[in-house]
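Entry 12.
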Amino acid sequence: MSSGFREEDLLPLSALQHLLYCERQCALIHIEQVWVENRLTAEGRLLHERTDRGPGETRGDVRIARGVPLHSFRLGISGKADVVEFHRVHECVTEAPGVEDSSGAESVWLPFPVEYKRGRSKLMRGDEVQLCAQAMCLEEMLNVSVPEGALFYGQTRRRKNVSFDEELRRITAEAAIRLHELISSGRTPPAVRAPKCDACSLRPVCLPDTFARSARKYLERAIHDALGQDEGGSN
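Predicted 3D structure (tokens):
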């Protein structure tokens, strides 16, 4: 991947989740600038707003920062982390620069990103990729290692810890490449009807059912014409 994206080339970090959910959805939002809100997206937006706007705070060995701006010129993305917890490590176990605390002891504050989602944990890895991208931004910006973070799901009120292993980092980097390719192409992929379309707020604009019916009619007509030619050739 290129290590030299310019600031004007940076794409929204959140687009990675859109891309992995559905490339057509991603293109509709980020190429055609189409957005339709439904109950699910409204609930998600309100959850993010409440989380981002809360004050920072310190709880023992954890400092909590909200609405943290992020960017990565290596991935070519920028965005915002809902929450970044900075966990204090009293002994310098990394190459990160030490920070002297009030007791005079040297401490290291390690970032731990937390992304808030309204629903529940999913089999698809879009949420994990979005969180991993935040971690990779923090690593690039702060020159520290960020080995893990967490997803908080509002529906279950539970955290899911995520380890940023080599596989997830590879998937994230490849998604960033694909995102830039998609946006650079300026082309919106055709609709493909799938069960996930039912929950998508863009369904009235995307019209996957119309495309599915049109494709089915085309195939039925093509098969009918082909069979008719075969029958005619056998006479």
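Annotation: Confidence is low (pLDDT under 50) at residues 93-102. Strands lie at 11-12, 57-59, 62-72, 77-89, 99-100, 106-117, 148-153, 158-163.
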